[in-house]
Amino acid sequence: MDRVLVTGGTGKLGTQVVAALKERGATTRAMTRNRFPLRGRVSGDLATGRGIAEAVRGVDTIVHCATHPRYRKVDVDGTRWLLKAARGYGVKHIVYISIVGIDDNPFPYYQAKRRAERLIEESGIPCTVLRATQFHELVVAMADAVTKLPIAPVPKDVRAQPVDVEAVAQRLAELAAGEPIGRARDVGGPQVLSLAEAVHAYGSVVDRRFKQLPVPVPGKTGAAFRAGANLLGTDGEVVGESFSHHLVWKLET
Ligand SMILES: NC(=O)c1ccc[n+]([C@@H]2O[C@H](COP(=O)([O-])OP(=O)(O)OC[C@H]3O[C@@H](n4cnc5c(N)ncnc54)[C@H](OP(=O)(O)O)[C@@H]3O)[C@@H](O)[C@H]2O)c1
Fold it and tell me: Given ligand 1 and candidates 5, 7, 13, which is best to mutate, with the most ligand atoms within 8 Å of its CB?
């Protein structure tokens, strides 16, 4: 692992991955759509294929973290662009970050992630796929959005096991430095809590007054979340600090 391309290397996870790889002595290149990238970054657009071949040329490992709300274009079609270039330039290892519990959840974003996983696994390029639970930041963003209203709508009977993004980044860097292993052990945070509890905890820390309105999540997606498909299974590994710790140390300080 000498030269590593990090797609999504400007995002929440990707910036931490770049830092973790550098700590391990790798030379990194972070992909961004920005046409005039800063030093250490490279311009490329997974939605159109622009700049992808140039970004991949000369790297031996790719850590693929890019994502976008237009996930069919970026996460699925973009993964195809990336794999084509990676095959062309003989990339030795591609490491992909995915999400815990996406197999049996028809949530469209999760199905796009599953599709991307399959493309990578079937590409013939040696690969490692790590699934993580939701990042603390995602749960905080959800809590922040709903508690701006006096009546906060919160998905009913849904739990989360949020994870520290730095711990996920460290694991990805470790995996990128090792041999390709296919599916790695899933990772998640140490605390399982209901979204109602998470929203309540966030509201207390930022001192916001609101009432919660539990909203049932319909269909098979709702059933999957209620069944805890998004939580670590018994063979998963707990990493990083808890959500409570994140609230106190990242938000209060
Ligand atoms: N958030 C979670 O709770 C969670 C949990 C488990 C797994 N994950 C996975 O972790 C990964 C990173 O998530 P994140 O929350 O860190 O994402 P993020 O902060 O939203 O960052 C998205 C990144 O994707 C890049 N990107 C977007 N569109 C692109 C395009 N067309 N071409 C090239 N790059 C593009 C962005 O780069 P520019 O804007 O600089 O172009 C940015 O670096 C995703 O694969 C996600 O599925 C997330």
Answer: 13
120 lines ligand 1 (CB under 6 A): no
For 183-199, the pLDDT digits (tens) are 999 999 999 999 999 99
Look at domain 3-251 and name its CATH class. Answer: alpha beta
3-state secondary structure 9-63: CCCHHHHHHHHHHHHCCCEEEEEECCCCCCCCEEECCCCCCCCHHHHHCCCCEEE
Q: Which of 61, 52, 50, 53 is nearest to 28 (CA)?
A: 61
pLDDT in tens, 73-130: 999 999 999 999 999 999 999 999 999 999 989 999 999 999 999 999 999 999 999 9
Residue spans of the domains in the chain: they are 3-251
Q: Is 132 in the pocket of ligand 1 (CB under 6 A)?
A: yes
Residue of 68, 100, 195 to mutate, ligand 1, most atoms within 8 A of C-beta = 68
68 pocket-lining for ligand 1 (C-beta < 6 Å): yes
